[in-house]
Design brief:
Elements lengths: L3 H13 L3 E9 L9 H16 L2 H12 L3 E8 L2 H4 L5 H18 L3 E8 L6 H15 L4 E9 L3 E3 H17 L11 E5 L20 E8 L1 H14 L5 H30 L3 E8 L9 H7 L10 H19 L8 E2 L7 H8 L5 H7 L7 E7 L4 H18 L3 E8 L7 E3 L6 E3 L18 E2 L9
Parallel strand pairs: 1-2, 2-3, 3-4, 4-6, 7-8, 8-9, 10-11
Antiparallel strand pairs: 1-7, 4-5, 5-14, 6-11, 12-13
Helix pairs in contact: 2-5, 3-9, 5-6, 6-7, 7-14, 8-9, 8-10, 9-11
Length: 457
């Protein structure tokens, strides 16, 4: 229950601090659509998704208007296509991708996720077809997103899959060279991918989920920044433990807003409610930046010494506040640091405060990883694979989710600007160290073994 003070506080967040429900995502299980006949499969997935999602956008708008809370994005996630479309060839996978994109347009959702494969322990035939199809699938569609899980704490790192993804990323970038490699902005490579992520580009519906489920992603970096600013202004000598408590209480309020909207949408559609993912996902808008939170904490700029510690505190406090407010917090939940999508972080890169090495260090304590990072177009496949393998190792060893959304921008070099548009923003291309010779380490076949705690059961 809300008291009057909480209601006024939440209203202020909505009006002045960029609080919104970033996404309501409908998860749809496609396991019962499986067929060896491509046309039958396409017809089945169209019928099932449109039947469930036909009223999704209208319902989100109506519930948002009822409570005065904007639902910014309406999205769909589906079962991993590498599994449900396993009988098909790469060319047929591209046809599936185009069908999913058409369905997304028909029901008017912003994105549809789940062009995905789970290959942390090995690459099955369907997974291989999907990975080979990724470049064309993402280049020839506009609303489709993909993700591939190449590592886990229990299985280790599948280096064969990492190399395959490096090749796919380079090819996808080349196919969308006219748009600064935009296809790569719709592709995440994961370690320890959750099964219930509502945020794109990583969203898919895990095999342990319900037949259809509503999950919510709530974001409020502007709200957190404003709360810290108020607290520090009232008490300039406030300790970091007290500031963490302010973040935690703020995250609690934000989570309640998300759960309210999510449960109402689920009830109206007659579907079960899944999770609230409270991830501080920024936009390129001033005042809606995770990077600005670092300045409120006293750092001159994100990327300077102390940034990793500040991010660790922020991430932990957000998770604690969200867990207290809801019985079903899931997805990633914490703080994202997507370079191009956050105006302040993009500026930190442009000004030289934040480099690829510091970004990698910070991913050890954030919610995801090297996210929306534009790199030189001549970055080799071996270097790309090395960047991904390093990020996967952080997730594997620390039993956390990590991911990469790397964009090698064709024809551009470090210091140039990449423009992606909309929520994807823009970023200065970050320098990546490359050896003169071939990186033979990533060319070794097989898996990097899992750490010893993978044997827990």
């Amino acid at each position: 229950m809300y008291n009057d003070q909480e209601l006024f506080s939440t209203l202020h967040m909505l009006r002045n601090e960029n609080l919104d429900v970033r996404t309501v995502t409908l998860g749809v299980n496609l396991m019962d659509c499986v067929s060896h006949d491509l046309e039958v499969f396409k017809a089945k997935i169209r019928a099932k998704i449109t039947g469930l999602a036909g009223n999704l956008v209208d319902t989100c708008n109506q519930v948002g208007e009822k409570y005065g809370i904007q639902v910014v994005n309406k999205r769909i996630s589906v079962s991993p296509i590498g599994v449900v479309a396993a009988p098909f060839s790469p060319d047929q996978m591209v046809e599936v991708a185009k069908t999913l994109d058409e369905i997304a347009r028909e029901v008017n959702v912003d994105f549809i996720g789940g062009f995905s494969a789970l290959v942390e322990k090995g690459v099955a035939n369907g997974d291989k077809s999907l990975i080979l199809a990724i470049p064309r699938a993402l280049a020839e569609t506009s609303r489709l997103c993909g993700s591939v899980n190449v590592a886990s704490t229990r299985a280790g790192i599948n280096m064969d899959a990492v190399l395959m993804m490096a090749h796919a990323i380079k090819e996808a970038a080349a196919l969308t060279a006219h748009a600064d490699g935009l296809a790569c902005a719709k592709l995440c490579v994961f370690c320890n991918i959750p099964q219930d992520v509502p945020f794109m580009a990583g969203a898919y519906l895990g095999v342990g989920e319900a037949d259809a489920v509503i999950s919510v992603g709530v974001s409020g970096p502007g709200v957190v920044k404003a709360a810290i600013d108020r607290a520090v202004k009232a008490d300039p000598n406030m300790g970091l433990g007290q500031i963490a408590e302010v973040i935690k209480l703020t995250a609690c309020k934000v989570t309640r807003v998300g759960e309210l909207i999510g449960r109402e949408v689920a009830k109206t559609l007659g579907l079960p409610f899944g999770v609230v993912d409270l991830s501080l996902a920024p936009t390129p808008t001033v005042g809606d930046s995770v990077g600005e939170i670092f300045e409120s904490l006293g750092l001159v700029k994100m990327g300077l010494p102390g940034s990793t510690a500040a991010l660790a505190m922020l991430n932990d406090a957000v998770k604690k506040g969200g867990a207290f407010a809801s019985s079903h917090v899931g997805g990633l939940s914490g703080a994202f640091i997507p370079v191009s999508e956050d105006l302040n972080i993009a500026e930190a890169v442009a000004q030289g405060h934040l480099n690829i090495e510091k970004l990698e260090a910070m991913t050890a304590v954030c919610s995801v990883g090297l996210d929306m990072v534009a790199i030189p177009g001549d970055t080799s496949e071996e270097t790309l694979a090395g960047l991904m393998a390093d990020e996967m190792a952080i997730g594997m060893i620390n039993s956390k989710t990590t991911a990469t959304r790397l964009i090698p921008v064709p024809g551009k070099k470090a210091g140039d600007m990449a423009e992606f548009g909309g929520l994807l923003g823009h970023a200065t291309i970050i320098d990546v160290k490359q050896a003169a010779g071939e990186n033979r380490f990533v060319r070794h076949a097989g898996r990097i073994p899992a750490p010893i705690h993978s044997l827990k059961n």
